[in-house]
Amino acid sequence: MEYEYEQIVKETPNLYSLFIDRSREDYITYGGLDTNLLKNDLSFDNLVKEWHKKEYEAYPADDNGEKRYLTIMKCIDFYNSKKLELYIDSLRVKELQ
Known about the structure:
The chain has about 100 residues and is mostly helical. It has helices at about 5-10, 25-30, 40-50, 70-80, 80-95; strands spanning about 60, 65-70.
């Protein structure tokens, strides 16, 4: 039996979130930032939702006709984005105050 996540990936890989399952909660729990900086932070949620709307088109694989999706590239681009950097800098300012 497939997990729900695996089924979503196969059916509509471009529609699932960058933050799957409890990733966000785990980052809050195990990350080094103060939890109050991320919990219920609408600006963070909006940043993720805005980035998730960007379309990364699938391209056909070489041999078998299956499509390859650029989800990892999308995540790496988000990680290296200026918007995420500015958001993190804003958290540093809050933490110093």
